[in-house]
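Field reference: "sequence" (input) and "structure" (output). Example, beta-N-acetylhexosaminidase:
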Amino acid sequence: MERAVAGVGRPVGILVAVAVAASLAGCGDNARTGRRDAAPVQKSLGTASARPDWVPGYVAKLSTEEKVGQLFVPTVGSASAGTAMIRKYHVGGVIYFPENLRTPRSTAQLSNALQKASKIPMLIGVDEEQGIVSRTPFVTRFPGNMTLGASGRVEDARAAAQATGAELRAVGINQNYAPDADVNVNPANPVIGIRSFGADPALVAKMTRAAVTGYQQAGVAATAKHFPGHGDTATDSHTGLPVIKHSPATWERLDAPPFESAGADAVMSAHIVVPKLDGSGDPATLSKNVLTGLLRNKLGFQGVIVTDSLQMEGVREKYSDRVVPVRAINAGADQLLMPPSLPVAYQAVLKAAKSGRISQARLNDAVARILRLKEHRGLFRGTNVDPAKAGSQVDTAQHHALARSVAEHGVTVIRNVGNVLPLKNRKVYVTGAKSSQVGAALRAAGVKTTGSLGQADVALLTTLNSGASATAAQTRKLASKPTVVAALGAPYDLDKADSAKALVATYSSTAPAIAALARILSGQAKPSAKLPVPVAGQRIGTGLTY
């Protein structure tokens, strides 16, 4: 499980009317309990210095138990179980998984029930990166980040995020644990790969910023992840503790730029060790040097820092489940995502807060940041959604058309020896991953296909994370015909396909990506994308057209 207020950086002014904010800061029970009818009314945008900040007074009226609860973002079951959890632990948010996302109507109903149970508006989040990390079965399916990186079109990244965000907001989800801001420079990376926009920090930075803007325009809080950068590891932090050997200079040049300019509401920490940034051996999630020293102080980020899932092994190797949440808060994290046991973690943090091991200043600061994020995304103005309308607001025809366009813009032609492409007026033998879907898409695009290699003019091999060696071996078996290899997942499959006449990457096996591949191969559409990562001996920026 992967997770994570103004620019990874700079705070945006609180949207609150001066008179209402002032009265809230000094009012009685309603301010203490956080009821929505006592919340400030947002009327206009201005600078933070132009009006009083209602948040410190609001925080001061919360009990320690309520403050500690705001730090937690657990999973949730049924509406009744969630209601009981909220009332007992005062949690500041929850995260949805597919079991919470059966239909648009039921999801909207669950969101409304959870919000009704909470005295303070809740952040309801999900991991909806699109591409290979998609938790929400009823939203429009878009290709993932590397397709967008290949297109180089910031307008596509923004539009795809805005469309996804609008569909999430329709069912009451107001925070997305996306986009992935990692710079994937390691082809063997088992956990990031095509979730990244690419291997060029400038490209990743501009695409991350565009996606963040899209989510925010839809009213959804965006979360850049995984700080300080998870793009150069061969270990999966779900099952182990990766060690990244980047120097401070390398980190600043390679990993930092996307986070520094993202403009995200929140940044998610990574369960990785970077010894040259912190020599303690602690993962970044538990490192004050990383979270406070680098993210807060060096990059100037003033939003919410959220941990990646605390159920992952990368953060549990060194410390117990009671120790981890306390150390994370003291390192600078504001929110604790998916504790293995909410009762255990909550009591540990509550005890630390009451004993002074977590200072009141640190606790109040974390809660204030969370409340400002909620206020900035409009949650104090109301959170109710309409379950009856939710179904008509997701998976729309307009968004399907956008997904097809985005996918087409990302298809990259890397090699085309002898102009074997496009395939029009040729009979094609299709084999490999999703060959039946690819064959059908080609026929729909006017290309003739055959079930016999011997009868074909051209062979098309499709791969889906097969690995470079396996792909090369499969390609050699087709050597009697000019062969096109199309990677539907990681483009690194193409690295050793030396005998192929043409190489193509879609970075996605979604239906829009397969349809886009067929249009490019058939010649109905002209390829325009460029490699966002080095592949098959070609540098970033390589891309052919015809």
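Residues 1-50 have pLDDT under 50 and may be disordered.
The longest strand covers residues 221-227.
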